[in-house]
Amino acid sequence: MVGKKFLSMRTASVLKKNKTDRINVPYGSAQKIGILFTAEDKAKYDSVKDFKQSFEDEGKKVEVLSFLGKGKENYEFRFDIFSAKDVSFWGKYTSEAVIKFADTEFDYLYCVDTEPNIFNEHIIAMSKAKCRIGIYLEERSDYYELMINLTNGALVKDLIKEMQFYTKQFRTS
Fold first, then answer.
1. Which residue spans within 53-158 are E strands per DSSP?
2. For 35-94, how does the pLDDT look when each residue is reduced to its tens digit (9 = 90+)?
3. Domain boundaries, the chain
4. Sign of the dihedral through C-alpha 86, 88, 92, 94
5. Three-state DSSP state, 166
């Protein structure tokens, strides 16, 4: 797929050109939360749904965007989705949901994936979020302000638990 090749090249460029001020917002002050994930199975979907609900229970506004790969299911149709079909030949997103999500100035943007996904990485690179949070991958350190290091075989629910724990540590000084 040619669009995927161009997307990869564009991601590196976008990452360098994105001049968004990155800060660690005190957790209690955070109001806008973004959650990005790759749809894989019902267990992951349910974990993300619970993660979203935990923020909403605290009065935070949450938007969720999911990459839906070929042959995967969009359970309950609760979240905005996009797929590889939403990337043009030149590696640009054509989905309004993706463009809006990337342009939103989230206090925290959580990428709830345990494996890299080129489509989500491009959104993270484009993002205007103040603090981007994802799994630790040394070669992806430019993508996140906070990276969570998990042992091999850790589950998505483990990643979410650690994300919640560490972001709740951000306090005013």
1. 61-68, 80-82, 108-111, 132-135, 146-148
2. 999 999 999 999 999 999 999 999 999 999 999 988 787 777 789 999 999 988 888 899
3. 2-167
4. negative
5. helix
Q: Which two tokens stand for residue 84?
A: 């590889």
pTM for the model: 0.92
- Asked if residue 73 lies in contact with residue 39, where contact means CB atoms within 8 angstroms, the answer is yes
71, 85 Cβ separation under 8 angstroms? no
The three-state secondary structure class of 61 is: strand
The answer to whether the beta carbons of residues 32 and 58 sit under 8 Å apart is no
Q: Which amino acid is at 31?
A: Q
**CATH T-level topology, domain 2-167:** inorganic pyrophosphatase (n-terminal core) (3.90.1640)
